[in-house]
Amino acid sequence: MLVEKRAHPPEKNRLHPRNRHRERYDFPLLTQACPELADFLKMNIYGDVSVDFADPAAVKMLNTALLKQYYDLNFWDIPPGYLCPPIPGRADYIHHIADVLAGSNNGIIPTGPQIRCLDVGVGANCIYPIIGRKEYGWSFLGSDVDRPAIQSAEAIVAANDALRGAITCQWHPNPNNIFVGVIAPDKPVDLSICNPPFYASAAEAQTETLRKQRNLSQEKVIKSVPNFGGQNRELWYPGGEVKFIQAMIAQSRQLSSACLWFSSLVAKQNHLPAIYHALKIARVADVKTIEMGQGNKTSRIVAWSFLNQVEQRNWSLARWQR
Question: Strand, coil or helix: what is 172?
């Protein structure tokens, strides 16, 4: 049964102005790029052609089409059960953090492979390096504690000419060492990004997944099948998002001169006070909080640097303008 159609703005104006996904999905265009998507298209309750966002296979195929159409990928795949990220939101992080780098460079976004970025928890999908490489030509090191995730990311890189030589993936066996052993003091990075585990336990992750599925399907759901997937290490960490980011901040202090800007996605606003307290204890020199929005969902990036404005400018002159 069709319901009254809601008015949609011509653009998703909460997304970053440079985000390629501000307009509604163009399914004819995406189906041209990825004909397999056609099998997942259906009429939704508003009479629009769409995909079933409660179906993990449909979400994965939509991502495949988006990456082929907008990011020049020939191949993208992830193993069953691994996190299938919402691409517009991930692209927003990259564009906003590019603006943070510009703030250390007289307002000019630094581009090219000399900009070295670390993706903490790159995952099987390798999505942040894919977007950062396409949009700004940056090079990436992706680290993860999950070996199959690294193998998947490496397969994506190897299968795409645009990624080979620009993205390196590194398995890191100790989940307690987020930066130590990943960032080498003699090989600094300009930026670190992270989509941290959100939940505090596997049970919490499953409960929230069930709630989201019920909202998407409008039907009773008794078994949790995450529409965006996710392995345990991707979804939860003891103490949840706050504890993970606090650990990141404490460890970043040890490498204060080996990275210009550390950053992390923060899903819940009420986590910010504890994060700001940890930043104060670490004695960072500069902190930025950037709000992002997609639909009714709001999140934010917290970025921090141990370098003051003059030191940031000296960093950019020494590394980006040679």
Answer: coil
Torsion angle, CA of 95/96/101/105, rounded to 10 degrees? Answer: 90
Which one, of 290, 317, 313, lies nearest residue 16 by Cα? 290
Which residue range is the domain that position 191 belongs to? 81-319
CB 79 within 8 A of CB 148: yes
pTM of the model: 0.89
The whole-angstrom separation of Cα 34 and Cα 25 is: 13
Distance CA 144, CA 43 (A): 39
Residue 239 identity: G
Residue 287 resides in a domain: yes
Number of domains forming the structure of the chain: 1
- First-to-last C-alpha distance (Å) of the chain: 62
210 located within any domain: yes
The owner of tokens 């960093």 is: 315
How far is Cα 214 from Cα 40, in angstroms, rounded to an integer? 20
Characterize the bridge pairing of strands 297-305 and 286-294. Answer: antiparallel
pLDDT in tens, 124-172: 999 999 999 999 999 999 999 999 999 999 999 999 999 999 999 999 9
With respect to residue 49, please indicate whether it lies within any of the assigned structural domains: no
Backbone dihedral angles phi then psi of residue 228, each to the nearest 5 degrees? -105, 10
Radius of gyration of the chain (CA): 20
DSSP 8-state class, residue 170: E
What six digits make up the tokens of 4?
């009254």
Q: In this structure, what CATH number is given to the domain that contains residue 219?
A: 3.40.50.150
